[in-house]
Amino acid sequence: MDILIVGIICYLMGSIPFGYILTKIFLKKDIRDIGSGNIGATNALRTGSKTIGYTTLFLDIIKAVITVIYIKFNLPELLYIASLCVFLGHVFPIWLKFKGGKGVATYLGILFSLNIYFGLVFVISWLITFIFSRFSSLSSLVASISIPIYLLILTQFDQIIFFTIMFILIFFTHRENIKRLKNKVETKTKIY
After folding, report:
1. pTM value?
2. In the chain, where the domains are located
3. Which of 10, 65, 138, 184 is least buried, going by the fewest C-beta atoms within 10 A?
4. Tens of pLDDT along 10-60?
5. If DSSP states are collapsed to H, E and C, what string results for 150-169?
């Protein structure tokens, strides 16, 4: 019963579509009609408001941090289930007909909550890739695969399955970006 309750609550927390809410309130626009149509932070930056973009990023991270940290200290045996449900909530939010973000900011919040070093490895990998490519999507993919690789190097095999699943999910959410990268038509991202 605990698994079901925790799963639902974590999914609902992850489902809060901050990019959609902020653009509706402050710009009177539907973020799904802008840029890629995605509700995440990268597309929120395309609204023309850096404030909305970075606030979306912050809130998408924080909703995962609050949820996962609570479970970590109260129901640690459900930690990975809770983390997965928060992520799935963001990617498939019930409020927006299951069409959400790509999950990167929420995943970053999950990583920092599970282990600060995971979060740091992700951020460093993302930044290095972005500096050289200027593609947010490519940076996210490289950063996501960096966690299983990091665990392989440390021979921490017990966690590799979970983080490999998370990489596969992020790969799935970026499938259109991967096609555009392959065809050399992916849009570069301005983060400042």
Report:
1. 0.94
2. 2-182
3. 184
4. 999 999 999 999 999 999 999 999 888 889 998 898 888 899 999 999 999
5. HHHHCCCHHHHHHHHHHHHH
